[in-house]
Specification:
The complex is a heterodimer of chains A (330) and B (216).
Chain A lengths: L6 E5 L3 H9 L4 E4 L17 H13 L3 E6 L9 H12 L4 E4 L2 H10 L5 E3 L8 H11 L3 E3 L6 H10 L3 E9 L10 H6 L15 E5 L3 E6 L2 E7 L13 E4 L2 E4 L6 E3 L4 H6 L4 E4 L6 H19 L18 E2 L1 H4 L4
Parallel strand pairs in A: 1-2, 1-14, 2-3, 3-4, 4-5, 5-6, 6-7, 7-14, 13-15
Antiparallel strand pairs in A: 7-13, 8-9, 9-10, 11-12
Helix pairs in contact in A: 1-2, 1-9, 3-4
Chain B lengths: L6 H9 L8 H14 L1 H6 L8 E5 L5 E5 L6 E5 L9 E5 L1 H8 L5 H6 L4 E4 L1 H12 L5 H6 L6 H61 L5
Parallel strand pairs in B: 1-4
Antiparallel strand pairs in B: 1-2, 2-3, 4-5
The chains are: A alpha/beta (330), B alpha+beta (216).
Chain lengths: 330, 216
């Protein structure tokens, strides 16, 4: 028996990564501009207008779509850069914009009604009432669900809403406060939700202490890795801290989400699209992960068991989890 | 960081008597080719074009100081690993650094597996990593493009050299495994013994807890 085909939404931080994603079988590529309007505002990353236009051409010629993430919250009194990003995406005929802020959704709806709108994970809409609000007011066509729901909860939610849902299936994980986390902002003064950079590289330092590697964010020591111990991102949520006389990962371990084995359940739960995290990653990551998920999605569509992926080497801390989708800790 | 036992390590030892200055013409030529073929690398460096990055292949007796200035980029070989002259340092085995340069390896994955070390200004390193990854650099093709009508035979020569290097790498790994086998056997035996002791201690701890009277 075949399942409905799941759409594969893949990350691109550079034009080269976009081409790698499309060549590896992405149905959609999502990307951002080179500024604070997107949540991966890192040095050397992202697209200027010319690169977006070329990327759209490349993707469209091969049957793939391009979604533009404008998913940070505009700075109070300075919505200009965010409005311009929406205008540019519309002018260049992007297939959709991924937005989180209500004001920006309103701007896009009234200024560019023909531009398809997706609700970003950063909006953290996780219940039918919240999702209906965005659909009714801004005609949102797809909602990217925050990583707080089990597959059973996603299935129940999909029965109560009339809009496409997209879920993350691979890559870095945040603590369960997407769009609302202030840990990095507290430590650095730079907000992931407004400036687009969690643990900005300008505030990250590594110190080699001979037998261990110490990572710091601003004035905070986040972790210390023994020689040859797999490392993780220098984010506070994945820091190792001392509490009650014991040093441990208080929030979450450096681990990547990997739902390769759960794709049939996600298809059954009525999910439309699968998202791979990692616009900050290199094209080797993009090519390998997209290719593995392309095979898995095609296998599920054909009613077969998805093959094992062997993507541990690309995972943070070289560990994988099914995270909240199974919620095994309950 | 310990270098892997590889043909590069042996070549590095053989290169030891060669002064860094002798590498300079080849380095400058390679940088010129990259600068001409991939100007986007330098454009993507943005505000960091004036930064100095020390690239330190741990299996060579040299390190390289890179200034990714779009107008006048510089790549200088140095023998004494001058970290104090650099804003940031990237350290790893030469072949891994080349794989990263050509987009075959993901920088984050290398960092997670501890095959890559960075020091200094992390922002400069991140900018360089992203700029290089986005450029689709193919060093062999770029250099072969200089050979004009001789590019074909040169490509065959490079392919043969790569094949020989791959065989040498495999043979050296076999040799390393053979040399390390007695130590690894001792290591495994110690591990097994430690596990037994640890299990025994765990059992003793459980028994002691059972015997301990509960507080009223």
């Amino acid at each position: 028996m075949t399942c409905p085909s799941l759409e594969l939404v893949c990350p691109a931080g550079t034009p080269a990564a976009l081409r790698s994603a499309v060549d590896a079988g992405a149905d959609c590529v999502y990307l951002g501009f080179r500024d604070e309007t997107n949540a991966r505002n890192f040095p050397g990353l992202n697209f200027n207008n010319r690169e977006l236009a070329e990327g759209l051409d490349y993707a469209h010629q091969r049957g793939a779509k391009v979604l533009v993430a404008i998913n940070t919250y505009p700075e109070a009194g300075n919505p200009g850069p965010w409005y311009r990003a929406v205008d540019t995406a519309a002018a260049l005929e992007a297939d959709a914009v991924i937005l989180a802020d209500i004001g920006l959704l309103d701007y896009a709806t009234t200024t560019h009604p023909g531009l398809r709108r997706h609700l970003s994970v950063q909006a953290s809409a996780s219940n039918p009432e919240a999702i209906r609000f965005y659909v009714e007011n801004f005609d949102v066509k797809r909602v990217v669900l925050p990583r707080v729901l089990t597959v059973a909860e996603i299935a129940a939610l999909n029965k109560q809403i009339k809009v496409e849902t997209e879920v993350f299936v691979f890559g870095g994980l945040c603590v369960m406060a997407e769009g609302r986390c202030a840990l990095s902002s507290y430590a650095t003064g730079i907000s992931p939700n407004k400036n687009g950079a969690c643990s900005p590289a300008s505030h990250v330092h590594y110190e080699d202490e001979g037998d261990r590697l110490v990572s710091k964010l601003g004035d905070f020591t986040i972790n210390a890795f023994d020689t040859n111990e797999p490392a993780g991102y220098p984010t506070l949520c994945k820091g190792r801290f001392m509490a009650g006389g014991k040093t441990s990962y208080l929030f979450e371990e450096p681990t990547s989400l990997s739902l390769g084995t759960m794709l049939p359940e996600l298809a059954e739960a009525g999910v439309t699209a699968l998202k791979i995290e990692g616009r900050q990653r290199g094209r080797a990551y993009v090519a390998a992960v997209v290719q593995a998920f392309r095979q898995a999605v095609d296998a599920v569509h054909a009613g077969q068991t998805p093959p094992l992926m062997n993507l541990e080497n690309f995972s943070e801390g070289q560990q994988e989890t099914t995270g909240v989708y199974e919620k095994t800790w309950r | 960081m310990t270098p892997p036992f590889s043909p590069v390590l042996l070549a590095g030892m053989a290169l030891y008597p060669v002064p860094a200055a002798m590498l300079q013409p080849a380095l400058s030529a390679a940088l010129l080719i990259i600068h001409r073929s991939h100007p986007d690398v330098f454009e993507r460096m943005g505000e960091f074009t004036g930064s100095v990055i020390l690239i330190d292949p741990i299996d060579l007796p040299y390190a390289f100081l890179l200034t990714p200035d779009g107008r006048a980029p510089k790549l200088v070989a140095a023998r004494n690993h001058p970290t104090n002259e650099a804003d940031a340092v990237i350290r790893g085995p030469l072949l891994s650094l080349l794989d990263m340069l050509e987009g075959r390896l993901d920088g984050d994955a290398m960092f997670f597996s501890r095959k890559l070390e960075i020091e200094g200004d992390t922002e400069v390193v991140v900018a360089l990593r992203n700029a290089v990854d986005g450029a689709e650099i193919d060093l062999t093709a770029d250099i072969l493009s200089l050979f004009g009508p001789f590019a074909g035979p040169a490509r065959v020569a490079v392919k043969t050299a790569n094949h020989v290097a791959s065989l040498a790498s495999r043979d050296l790994q076999t040799l390393a495994d053979a040399l390390l086998a007695p130590s690894m056997a001792r290591h495994d035996a110690h591990d097994a013994r430690l596990r037994k002791i640890s299990d025994k201690l765990g059992d003793m701890d459980k028994r002691t807890r059972k015997r301990r009277p509960e507080k009223s």
